Every structure is written in structure tokens, then in C-alpha cells.
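Need residues for this backbone.
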């Protein structure tokens, strides 16, 4: 009997395939993304959820200006809505301006747990085949953040939502990108700036009740909210500025950065030397090394508060255009004066429109690029309070002594990169208060 049983086992064994008895099932973990509390996005969030459920094309674009909160809204959608969709594999990819197909593929690969053996030493096209053969059997949602141009999903190995159980959601600043990516009118959702009441609620949350209870801060806060035009990035950043900057020195240094043109890469050492010349770091007048160290600390503080960001070149910083505009507004007493006048590379002309009373208010004048700025004025402006004059990267041929001369008041004079100037006139000796 035993012999017969053993024979039966041998027969069955020979007919079966038992090389692998059990395989490890891949698990696609759902990750909650960090996001601050959002204010005033309820209707847009509901529209996104409805579009996800009802849009047959499966491609949805969130469009809106920079800083309006598109990324935060998409993160909230991931956390609050997609977390309840148990069957979906959710893939988050940051695309950015210079889209790189390889980096996008790598982000998808990591989520799908593709092994090194399947991935290494393969071309973009070969990797696309690997991803395609995995995704074609999955229900997935691909979230693409910060898209600037059309992305060829098929080339990446991503099946089209038109004939597959998947969804593609992306954020973009450009309305035309929605069309390029295949999001129809129903699948293109505009993310608007906040209405005044919601904007103030967000600002209050970022600043804190303690700050707003200080004398005169409440009225200033409402002016700031109005100036920010309901843009969450500006509201949050200015809120942080009001509550995090430790002293008036930091605030003066922050506003000073707005004297540089929009999107300009500001050299850190150059900025610190200008701060020293302005007297912002006067505590260390007798020790240049300590003053420079204080300047470095202030730059770190401003970067920590998101008021400055790393520039595109080494040892530089830059200011977001929204933040720069707000800094200028604050420097000009909330728009009531013209203490700061800045003209960028394409805006050097047109200063003649300022009338005599406005010129009397000017304390800092910054002019960049363009032609011979000293010839733009029908008559010599009268600037009795001018302390700082920056004329840089222009084509002027001579020191503009006929334009802005009140030597007794000017402390900071910067004519860097004006290579047409060959000689400094003897009148420079009249500037008795120059610090640099």
C-alpha cells in the first residue's frame, strides 16, 4: 500500500511545476505628503474630486499663477481623497521647468519597485517597455507637479488614460500646457487667488494672533493682504516675515534686496558690502570680518523665512518676484511714498514722469541697464534726501554729475559694470559722506 502511494506521488510530481512554490507580492505603499493647512480652497478641491470621478478622458490639469497654491492643493488631494482609493497605485513626480525624461522614469520606477536587474544598463526606450508592462495591468494615478511643456507619456512607458484604467493629474502655470497634455475644457481647472476674507484668514494663521494684537499691526496686516492680491505664497511669506524677523536690521536688509532687478542673481559678498556701506551693520563698524559674519547670518535668516532663495550661480541669492514686489511696497511706506525707485534692464527710461514732490521723497535710486541714463531728464531732479545711488550695467559714457548731484547727502554710490566710464571727475571730492 505504501509502495503504491509513493508511486502515485512520483507520478503527480512529474506532472507538476514546483520550481517556485510562493512568490512575494509587491506592495505599493500609499504615502501621505506633507502639506500645511489650506484656507479657501474648498470649492476648487471639490471640483477636482468631481472631475476625477466623472471626467472620461482621465487627464486633469490644475493651472494658475506661481504661488497660488497648486502644489498644496494637489498634495491635499493625495492625502484626503486618493488615500481612500485602495486599489490605485499613486505616483508623485516633480517635473519642473527643465523636464528630464530619465528622472521622471526613475521616480515611477521607485514607486513600482522595479528591480536593478530589470532596470540597469537600459536605454530610455527599453525602460519605457519595462514600465509599460507593469502599468498596463494596474489601476494607477500619476501626479505630475510643475509641468511647463508637453510630456510624451507613451515615450515614458505610461499608458494613455483614454484606453486604460488610470488618471493623470498635473499642475502648471501655463494655460496652453493643459491643451498640450490633452486636458479638455472640463479637465482644466483654474486655481484662483483667495478672496479678501479668506486671504486675511490665511495671513492671520501664518502671523499669529499675538503679532496682530500689537499696536498698528492689524491695520498694516490688512494693507499687506490687499497688496498681496490673495496670493497664498506672498501671504504666507510676508506673514513669516512679520513674525520671524528678529529686529529692524533684518527688515531693512530684506527691503534693500528689492533694489536689485527682478530675477537677478545677487552676489552675497556684494550685498553684504552694500549693507555695511548703508550702516545696517554698524554694530561692527570697526571689524569688517565680524560685520561680514553678521551679514551672512542675516542672509541665512532671510532664507530660513523664505524671503530669499538660492540663486542660479554659486554664492548668490535671489528674490521671488512676488516677494520683491511686496518688499518694495513695504519700503515705500505701503505705497504712500517713493522712498525707493528701481528701474530694471528694460525700464531705465520713463523716470521723467516723476514730479518734483516725488523726487524730494527719494532716498534710494537704483537703475540698471539701458542707455545713457543721465540724458533721460528734461531737467535736473531735485533729490534732497537721496542717500543711495546705484547705476549699474549701463552704457553711460561719463559720470552723471549733472543728473543727481547733492553731494552732501549721498552715502552710497555704486557704478559697477559701467565700462563706458573712463574717468572720474574732480567733483567726486564733493561727496564728503561717501561710505563706499
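Answer:
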Amino acid at each position: 500500500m505504501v509502495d503504491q502511494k509513493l508511486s502515485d506521488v512520483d507520478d503527480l510530481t512529474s506532472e507538476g511545476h514546483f520550481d517556485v512554490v510562493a512568490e512575494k507580492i509587491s506592495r505599493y505603499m500609499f504615502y501621505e505628503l506633507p502639506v500645511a493647512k489650506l484656507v479657501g480652497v474648498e470649492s476648487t478641491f471639490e471640483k477636482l474630486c468631481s472631475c476625477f470621478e466623472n471626467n472620461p478622458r482621465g487627464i486633469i490639469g490644475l493651472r494658475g499663477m506661481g504661488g497660488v497654491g497648486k502644489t498644496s492643493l494637489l498634495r491635499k488631494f493625495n492625502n484626503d481623497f486618493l488615500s481612500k482609493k485602495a486599489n490605485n497605485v499613486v505616483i508623485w513626480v516633480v517635473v519642473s521647468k527643465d523636464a528630464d525624461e530619465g528622472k521622471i522614469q526613475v521616480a515611477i520606477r521607485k514607486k513600482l519597485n522595479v528591480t536593478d536587474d530589470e532596470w540597469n544598463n537600459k536605454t530610455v526606450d527599453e525602460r519605457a517597455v519595462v514600465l509599460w508592462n507593469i502599468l498596463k495591468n494596474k489601476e494607477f494615478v500619476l501626479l505630475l507637479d510643475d509641468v511647463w511643456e508637453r510630456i510624451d507619456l507613451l515615450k515614458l512607458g505610461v499608458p494613455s488614460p483614454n484606453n486604460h484604467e488610470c488618471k493623470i493629474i498635473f499642475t502648471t502655470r501655463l494655460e496652453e500646457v493643459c491643451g498640450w497634455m490633452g486636458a479638455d475644457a472640463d479637465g482644466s481647472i483654474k486655481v484662483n487667488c483667495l478672496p479678501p476674507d479668506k486671504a486675511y484668514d490665511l495671513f492671520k494663521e501664518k502671523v499669529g494672533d499675538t503679532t496682530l494684537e500689537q499696536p498698528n499691526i492689524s491695520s498694516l496686516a490688512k494693507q499687506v493682504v490687499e497688496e498681496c492680491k490673495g496670493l497664498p505664497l506672498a501671504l504666507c511669506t510676508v506673514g513669516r516675515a512679520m513674525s520671524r524677523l528678529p529686529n529692524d536690521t533684518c527688515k531693512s536688509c530684506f527691503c534693500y534686496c528689492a533694489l536689485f532687478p527682478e530675477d537677478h542673481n545677487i552676489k552675497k559678498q556684494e550685498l553684504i558690502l552694500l549693507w555695511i556701506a548703508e550702516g545696517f551693520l554698524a554694530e561692527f563698524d570697526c571689524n569688517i570680518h565680524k560685520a561680514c559674519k553678521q551679514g551672512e547670518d542675516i542672509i541665512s535668516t532671510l532664507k530660513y523665512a523664505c524671503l530669499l532663495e538660492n540663486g542660479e550661480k554659486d554664492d548668490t541669492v535671489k528674490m521671488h518676484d512676488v516677494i520683491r514686489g511686496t518688499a518694495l511696497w513695504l519700503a515705500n511706506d505701503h505705497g504712500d511714498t517713493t522712498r525707493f525707485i528701481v528701474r530694471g534692464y528694460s525700464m531705465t527710461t520713463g523716470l521723467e514722469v516723476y514730479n518734483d514732490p516725488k523726487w524730494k521723497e527719494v532716498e534710494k535710486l537704483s537703475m540698471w541697464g539701458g542707455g545713457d541714463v543721465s540724458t533721460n531728464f528734461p531737467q535736473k531732479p531735485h533729490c534732497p534726501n537721496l542717500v543711495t545711488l546705484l547705476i549699474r550695467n549701463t552704457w553711460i559714457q561719463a559720470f552723471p554729475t549733472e543728473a543727481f548731484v547733492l553731494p552732501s547727502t549721498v552715502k552710497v554710490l555704486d557704478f559697477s559694470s559701467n565700462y563706458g566710464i573712463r574717468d572720474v571727475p574732480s567733483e567726486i571730492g564733493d561727496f564728503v559722506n561717501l561710505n563706499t
